[in-house]
Design goal:
The complex is a heterodimer of chains A (about 475) and B (about 350).
Chain A (H helix, E strand, L loop, with lengths): L1 E6 L9 E7 L6 E2 L4 E6 L4 E5 L4 E6 L6 E3 L3 E7 L5 H4 L40 H12 L25 H9 L18 H8 L19 E3 L2 E3 L15 H14 L4 E9 L1 H11 L11 H15 L5 E4 L4 E4 L5 E3 L1 E3 L2 E3 L2 E2 L7 H17 L12 E5 L18 E5 L3 E7 L2 E15 L5 H16 L1 H7 L1
Parallel strand pairs in A: 14-18, 18-19
Antiparallel strand pairs in A: 1-8, 2-4, 2-7, 3-6, 4-5, 6-8, 9-10, 11-21, 12-13, 14-17, 15-16, 19-21, 20-21
Helix pairs in contact in A: 7-8, 7-9, 9-10
Chain B lengths: L27 H26 L13 H10 L5 E3 L5 H6 L4 H6 L11 H4 L10 H16 L5 E6 L6 H13 L3 E7 L2 E2 L2 E2 H4 L7 H5 L3 E5 L3 H16 L5 E6 L18 H8 L3 H13 L3 H23 L19 H12 L8
Parallel strand pairs in B: 1-2, 2-3, 3-7, 6-7
Antiparallel strand pairs in B: 4-5
Classes of the chains: A alpha+beta (about 475), B alpha/beta (about 350).
Chain lengths: ~475, ~350
């Protein structure tokens, strides 16, 4: 028996890292040669890695979401003494298949360009490639060759534009850098991309001699992790985009740049909702149920969808169709220790007050404890984001991709309100609803939001009306 | 769209269909041989993909889906014919008798080629798109000057059909009536570009504009590919000039192991082509018409597995040459640029510089 380490291979001609997407084996598993081990996502593709050994998985060197470096340990195997062909050569000890010319960038010229992955058929997109190659070729030519003619350097004529390459000129132009203000570091004073980047990077300021102003020293949460305080943390911190953060960022970009968002607002007197909740909480049958304004808002939103099914729709651009669904999977934006997730309640339109309250409790508990399953996060048709508990009045939310509308609920606060031409103090809430303007128009959105508002204004009657 | 001019002798269900111009001339034994070739090539391809995913090959160009196009064409060649492939022609290389491990040397980056082109009458793979079409025409013009009864055949894809080199090769071949067959595997995708975007007329019809015949054959029908290629080569050998064959097929996998086809094509399209599998239809024919027993198919699978295991062993055992040897066969004679390359490699510490 021997231990063999499977190093993360470069599966795409010049990649430096890959993220673990799914483990298909666990420690202790016995695997056969070429059995699928893991899905990894590289800059180019998500690929499945087959096992190079027949043997036992001893150690997985990373977790789902981890970004692993190429040529570093991925899995340790225990391989039998006579495990056949697989044991005859170890990928870990075998010479790398990649030619040294594209080996890890230990001696990469410091152009900042780094390695460009090459896919046969695509070619290399290195803007400085030509200049670099020419430079290196010249450098390799013996300078003191007696037979070589002396190098005559053409003087740089004043008034001509500074020497550079078209891609670098474009780059500089795009970033508002005047090449005439730069000194080229390249051959014969050629201005390189690196020179432009240097000009763009902020100049280091003198270090403060005095102690910084006293700032908060408590940590805070950001993108699903604890980050250091203003006083104790580094000046600049880089956080890898993965896990929940990655899901959130990708979903928001996808939605923001495919669905044209529009929104409607309304301020509502929710006094009767507040009073109803206060009354229900005293009811013995509801002793174990956590009730909140969100429960009523959820019922109201589902009721609006039943009256105006068009809001519970999505735009299927691939097929050129609008999909109307007569069942609501109600997404609830949940602030969890891991970050923002949006699990949903399947068939929420069929729930009564107790059913909705219970479902919300389960959903929130699971989200907080991190036990939400992937299935509970797909298929959302409408969403509620409850920003009220954070003490704000309203929000302009972005739709989860493939949904018709998202309703933001602000805080319920006492506010002056006009009733029968008298100013009285009422519990007022602001509702804002963003919608996908490809299929939902302002009239429909307004009707839906008015319906939700009316429901909150008189919830008891609305619930009886059904 | 597959049009009515498509030459097909075997349906996707494995039933024979008549064609006014082409009939299958192959015996049951020969058809079984083609089946075996296709299974082995598919297995070779799977193992090579695994080896790449395990870090043992720098790259691999999968051939899944195109087995019939390659095996049909490869087996139609005479030993004296000469082929000019891309880096995806593993099926042709197999038909030319090149040992599988030699096909992988290029992909493991231990060789610039992997075999002696003269010995197998199969050029080393051309990676630059469409170049090999010019090589083939040049070679075919040489055949004319030798007065030999031989033909050249060159392989390229729908993407390379848009290259200037390929189109210039068409012009030269037509002008000199060169004994060359242009074998285009239209696998529908030039990396991520659909062939329908690059070819506003069916590819085979381009030949007419250059002045020689074009044929579209069902590239997933090995019987049809065999007959169409055989006739085109025979025609070329006896002075009939060039032919363009468009083998209408599908690349089931990625362009190369560096590509992710799910980013540009839909699953439904792949599903449709799964039902046109080139191997399954021959198997269905063999079972129905020749009553081949399942044990015979099992034996082929076993043989393919053994080949794959040996291939793996051979690849893992390949020694790594001094990188400087990559210059050895760049030019027939010494060349100052090659000298400079060698010098640079030593200066950068990539090679000890013994050559």
């Amino acid at each position: 028996m021997s231990e063999e380490i499977f190093l993360l291979p470069d599966v795409g001609e010049g990649l430096v890292e890959a993220e673990i997407v799914t483990w298909k084996v666990k420690e202790g598993d016995v695997v056969t040669l070429n059995q699928p081990l893991v899905d990894i996502e590289t800059a180019k593709a998500t690929v499945e890695l087959p096992s190079p050994y027949a043997g036992t998985v001893v150690k997985l060197h990373g977790s789902v979401g981890d970004v692993m470096e190429v040529h570093r340990p991925l899995i340790t195997f225990e391989v039998g003494g006579d495990a056949g062909a697989s044991a005859s050569a170890s990928p870990a000890s075998a010479p790398p298949a990649t030619p040294p010319a594209s080996a890890p960038p230990a001696e990469e010229p410091a152009t900042g360009a780094g390695r460009e992955a090459v896919l046969v058929g695509y070619g290399v997109a290195n803007e400085d490639g030509l200049a670099t190659r020419t430079h290196r070729r010249k450098a390799a030519t013996p300078v003191a060759s007696a037979s070589a003619p002396p190098v005559v350097r053409a003087p740089v004529t004043p008034g001509l534009s500074p020497r550079s390459t078209p891609p670098v000129r474009l780059y500089a132009k795009q970033h508002g850098i005047d090449l005439a203000t730069l000194t080229g570091s390249g051959r014969d004073g050629l201005i390189t991309r690196h020179d432009v980047e240097q000009a763009l990077s902020p100049q280091p300021t003198a270090r403060r001699e005095t102690a910084p102003m006293t700032g908060p020293t408590t940590t805070s949460r950001f993108v699903g992790r604890e980050i250091e305080s203003w006083s104790t943390g580094p000046k600049e911190e880089r956080i890898p985009v993965k896990g929940v953060l990655r899901s959130m960022s990708e979903a928001m970009v996808q939605s923001a740049f495919s669905a044209p968002h529009a929104a409607v607002w309304v301020r509502v007197d929710a006094t009767r909702t507040v009073e109803l909740l206060a009354g229900l909480k005293k009811h013995p049958n509801l002793a174990n149920v956590r009730l909140s304004p969100l429960t009523i808002v959820a019922l109201a939103f589902c009721d609006a969808a039943r009256h105006f099914p068009g809001i519970n729709s999505s735009f299927d651009s691939a097929n050129g169709e609008v999909v109307v669904r007569r069942s609501v999977n109600l997404g609830i934006a949940a602030d969890t220790p891991r970050g923002l997730i949006v699990p949903n309640i399947k068939g929420a339109d069929e729930l009564d007050l107790v059913g909705m309250a219970t479902s919300l409790n389960v959903l929130v508990d699971k989200a907080r404890s991190g036990t939400t399953t992937p299935n509970e996060m797909i298929g959302t048709t409408l969403t509620i984001t409850n920003v009220g508990p954070f003490g704000v009045d309203a929000a302009m939310p972005i739709l989860p991709p493939g949904t018709g509308a998202i309703l933001a609920v602000g805080q319920i606060a006492k506010s002056p309100w006009v009733v029968d031409d008298e100013i009285v103090i009422r519990h007022v809430v602001e509702l804002a609803m963003a919608f996908d303007h490809r299929q939902v128009d302002g009239a429909l959105a307004s009707r839906v939001l008015s319906h939700v508002g009316a429901f909150l204004g008189d919830p008891a009657t609305a619930m009886i009306a059904g | 769209m597959i049009d009515e001019e498509l030459v097909r002798l075997l349906t996707p269900e494995g039933e024979r269909v008549a064609h006014p111009e082409y009939q299958s001339t192959l015996s049951g034994e020969e058809i079984f041989g083609l089946y075996r070739d296709m299974v082995i090539i598919r297995r070779l391809c799977n193992e090579s993909t695994s080896l790449q995913r395990q870090g043992q090959l720098a790259l691999w160009a999968p051939v899944q889906g195109q087995e019939a196009a390659q095996i049909g064409a490869g087996r139609a060649m005479a030993p004296t014919d000469f082929s000019f492939p891309t880096y995806r022609e593993h099926g042709i290389a197999w038909c030319r008798g090149i040992p599988p491990e030699n096909m992988l040397r290029l992909f493991r980056a231990v060789s610039n080629g992997g075999w002696d082109p003269q010995k197998y009458r199969h050029s080393v793979p051309t990676i630059v798109l469409g170049n090999q079409a010019l090589h083939a025409v040049g070679y075919a013009m040489g055949i004319q000057r030798d007065g030999a009864e031989e033909a050249a055949i060159t392989f390229f894809g729908d993407g390379a059909s848009s290259q200037g080199d390929t189109l210039e090769a068409f012009v030269w071949a037509a002008s000199f009536n060169a004994p060359v067959v242009f074998f285009c595997q239209n696998n529908q995708w030039g990396i991520s570009t659909p062939s329908s975007l690059q070819s506003k007329v069916p590819l085979y019809r381009r030949a007419e504009g250059f002045g020689f015949p074009g044929v579209r054959v069902d590239g997933n029908d090995v019987l049809a590919v065999y007959e169409v290629t055989k006739r085109a080569l025979e025609n070329a050998r006896v002075g009939g000039g060039p032919t363009l064959i468009e083998a209408y097929t599908y690349r089931m996998g990625a362009h190369t192991t560096s590509d992710d086809p799910t980013r540009y094509r839909i699953d439904a399209e792949v599903e449709v082509w799964k039902h046109r599998d080139p191997v399954e239809r021959v198997k269905a024919l063999l079972v129905r018409e020749y009553e081949i027993k399942s044990t015979a198919f099992d034996d082929v699978a076993t043989e393919a597995d053994a080949m794959a295991l040996k291939l793996r062993e051979d690849v893992l055992a390949m020694s790594r040459p001094d990188p400087i040897t990559m210059f050895d066969n760049a030019y027939a004679s010494e060349h100052p640029l090659v000298d400079e390359g060698r010098r640079e490699m030593v200066e950068l510490g990539i090679s000890g510089g013994t050559h």
